[in-house]
Amino acid sequence: MRVCYFLHYHVTVSFARSGGPGGQNVNKVNTKVDMRFNVTNAYWLNDRIRERIMQMEKNRINKDGEIVISSTKTRTQKGNIDDALAKLQAIIDVASYVPPPPSEEQKKKIAKMAAIGEQKRLKSKKALSDKKAFRRSRDSWD
């Protein structure tokens, strides 16, 4: 489910010659896409979503607050633009995901597991206490 959409004027696109195989086409056509999206100035994004993007993609964000997305997937500019836009939309979708609250069945299961854990903890404490009590009583020769 997409919560936030962005428009083309929210990004800056630049082109370069793409590397890799492709023959003469690689040397002549600028098909590589470098897309920049300024996260800090994205006023239309929720603050929580902006912070999550900044935290999740901190290695891809430059000092100006721009996330840089490159694409050389296809041999056409339009295909690479579409791929870069899809990557950016995927980042926004992941950052805007809010998990649903647990159901009653899940809450009961969690409570049951917590109770079992508490019983195990108390049982191990009791075993350790009994072991220490046995050591104390064994040393007395009264």
Automatic annotation (TrEMBL):
GO terms for molecular function: translation release factor activity. Pfam families: RF-1 (PF00472). InterPro entries: Pep_chain_release_fac_I. Residues 121-142 are annotated as: Disordered. It comes from the Eukaryota. Residues 127-142 have a biased composition (Basic and acidic residues). Signal peptide: none annotated. Residues 17-33 form the Prokaryotic-type class I peptide chain release factors domain. PANTHER family: CLASS I PEPTIDE CHAIN RELEASE FACTOR. This is CLASS I PEPTIDE CHAIN RELEASE FACTOR.
